[in-house]
Write a structure and sequence with these properties.
With 564 residues, the protein is of the alpha+beta class. The chain has helices at 8-12, 18-30, 49-55, 59-62, 76-89, 145-192, 211-216, 227-234, 240-252, 315-372, 376-407, 420-437, 456-472, 528-538; strands spanning 34-38, 44-47, 98-100, 104-105, 108-109, 116-117, 120-129, 135-143, 195-201, 206-209, 257-264, 270-278, 306-313, 416-419, 440-447, 451-454, 477-486, 489-496, 542-546, 554-561. It has 4 domains: 8-143, Beta-Lactamase, CATH 3.30.450.20; 193-313, Beta-Lactamase (2-Layer Sandwich); 323-399, Helix Hairpins (Orthogonal Bundle); 412-561, Heat Shock Protein 90. Strands 1, 2, 3, 4, 7 and 8 form a 6-stranded antiparallel sheet that branches. It has a 5-stranded antiparallel sheet with strand order 10-9-13-12-11. A 5-stranded mixed sheet has the order 15-17-18-20-19.
């Protein structure tokens, strides 16, 4: 457009040139299309009669107002859509450029005061310039409601005509459509129930199945399932033989078979599948025994040529069963441990009673003898016996106190540098007389000097308990005590040639109150090895037992960190 439709300069010169001003205003007012003139700030400069009639408003209401603020009658959503519509329409363009906006629904009242009715609008915007070069926007507004409604009616008519044209075909296809819908409903029902249907052609080894069956196996809908793939890839190895046996049974019997198995999906998720299979009634069976080259299926005489079945995801049920089984196993193990603890406690009470009664009886008897006899020889022997039994009682009481302290976490150690080799040698010499009195040889000549950070009193208790334990179970032969350095560790070994230890109790001998040997138990409370292990652990070390079996002796190995 070379000349603007509306020039404010014409209004300014209206007094000097009334004829020209009248001509411009009259022309603008007489235009049959509805026009709005906007300045650069999108404010309304002028509106002709056609526009005012179209939107049912007065000129004074909109002139001087922002185009975004006038005619605010539609819903909030429509007003926001109208604002975005105007922004895109008034975006910066070249002078003379015309832009046609897409249709927009914006509801207005027909007479300006009545209820809002659906109305559709389309605007052509033209960027113009005044004589002074100031930009103006000319908006030619069209009410296209009738056209849009007519197009909608035409679309409905065309749809109606198309429907009538397809009616005969629809009637022809109705039966097939109903069958298809029934099949889809069955598929949906099976999918909803996580049930997959399948058929295996035994001659080819290929499955014809629903997508749900593939989904249960973790496969996409386009995947192909063969018998070989099912057994070699999809089913977890632990379940393959059971499923293969079930398939073989389904081939040769009319009775349905049922088997569950586990599969691992590509995302590493594991699922449990329940499979029910049978051969269809009246299905032909394979007569020959000769296989066909290149075909996966294995032909067997009398086997069905196909097997049909269903597959169901039972992961939740199976996991619940496994949880119940695990809980039952745990409960049974806990019950056994409880019963064993009860037996151990009963055994411990009996042992305490027995162990305490013996020295107490000896002390009481010799004390009575002292009262009745003035023989100095008897008095000296009585003193020795009483002292020995009192010391034994003191050791048992100390073990019981230490046991309680360890169980409650109150046993403490006071570490200091200790020569493990020298300590072991001193204890061996202290016990040599007791050992040799029993007819057992003591070997303690491989004691390497090795400094460890330890509580000497507690470490002495460990070595004493190990040597006493070896002496208790060795009737003849030898006991060897050795200390060596193994890198950053110090190693103490106490070896004997006594009864030995069965493989089934090697770990249990370190349990509290446990004593191997049943009714043929040796003397003691069953605390020595448990105390030794607890004390060694407090020093950051380990202890374990080695034995080649009953009657072949045993070796106890203590390893603790060296002092650096």
């Amino acid at each position: 457009m070379s000349e603007p439709l509306f020039d404010p300069e014409s209004i300014e010169s209206a007094e000097s040139e009334p004829a020209a001003a009248f001509d411009v205003a009259d022309i603008f007012e007489a235009l049959p299309d509805a026009w709005l003139i906007l300045d650069a700030d999108a404010n309304v400069v002028a509106a002709n009669r056609a526009y005012l009639t179209l939107v049912s408003c007065e000129r004074e209401v909109i002139v001087g107002q922002s185009v975004y603020a006038i005619n605010q009658a539609g819903s909030a959503t429509q007003r926001e859509a109208r604002r975005q519509w105007l922004e895109s329409l008034l975006a910066q363009g070249a002078p003379g450029e015309s832009r046609l906006a897409p249709p927009l629904r914006y509801d207005l009242a027909l007479d300006g005061v009545g209820p809002l009715v659906p109305r559709y609008w389309q605007v052509r915007a033209t960027l113009m310039r005044t004589a002074r070069g100031e930009p103006l926007y000319g908006l030619c507004v069209h009410d296209i409601t009738e056209r849009m409604e007519e197009e909608a009616r035409e679309q409905r008519e065309r749809a109606k005509l198309r429907s009538q044209a397809r009616l005969r075909q629809v009637l022809v296809d109705e039966a097939n459509e109903q069958l298809r819908m029934q099949q889809e409903q069955l598929q949906h029902a099976l999918a909803f129930a996580s049930v997959g249907a399948w058929e295996l052609q035994t001659r080819t080894g290929v499955f014809t199945c629903t997508e749900q069956f593939k989904t249960l196996l973790g496969l996409p809908g386009a995947a192909t399932i063969t018998e070989r793939r099912l057994f070699e890839e999809l089913i977890d190895e632990a379940s393959r033989e059971r499923v293969r046996s079930a398939f073989d049974a389904a081939r040769h019997t009319d009775m349905p078979v049922e088997v569950d198995f586990r599969v691992t999906w590509p995302n590493r998720q594991r699922r449990w599948i329940l499979l029910r299979a049978t051969r269809p009634r009246g299905i032909e069976t394979i007569e020959g025994t000769e296989g066909i080259d290149g075909i996966e299926g294995i032909e067997q005489p009398g086997a069905a040529v196909s097997i049909i079945g269903l597959a169901l995801d039972i992961s939740m049920r199976k996991e619940s069963e496994l949880e119940h089984q695990a809980a039952a196993v745990t409960e049974r193990a806990a019950r056994e441990r409880s019963e064993e603890a009860t037996r151990a406690m009963d055994h411990f009470v009996a042992a305490v009673s027995h162990e305490l009664r013996s020295p107490l009886g000896a002390i009481q008897s010799w004390a009575t003898l002292l009262q009745r006899s003035a023989d100095l020889a008897h008095m000296a022997r009585a003193g020795t016996v009483i002292e020995r039994n009192a010391r034994q009682l003191a050791l048992m009481v100390d073990d019981l106190l230490d046991s309680g302290a360890i169980a409650t976490g109150k046993l403490s150690i006071e570490p200091a540098p200790v020569d493990l080799g020298a300590l072991a040698g001193n204890i061996a010499e202290d016990m040599r007389m007791r050992i040799e009195e029993k007819g057992v040889r003591l070997i303690a000549d491989d004691l390497e000097s090795c400094i460890v950070m330890a509580d000497e009193k507690r470490l002495r208790q460990v070595i004493w308990n190990l040597v006493s334990n070896a002496l208790k179970f060795t009737e003849a032969g030898e006991i060897a005590v050795s200390v060596g350095v193994r890198g950053e560790q110090a190693e103490l070994r106490v070896r004997d040639t006594g009864r030995g230890i069965g493989a089934d109790v090697l770990e249990r001998i370190f349990e509290r109150f446990y004593q191997a040997g049943g009714s043929g138990r040796a003397s003691g409370l069953g605390l020595g090895l448990w105390l030794a292990r607890s004390i060694v652990r407090l020093h950051g070390g380990t202890i374990h037992a080695q034995s080649e079996g009953a009657g072949r002796g045993a070796t106890f190995v203590v390893v603790v960190p060296r002092y650096r």
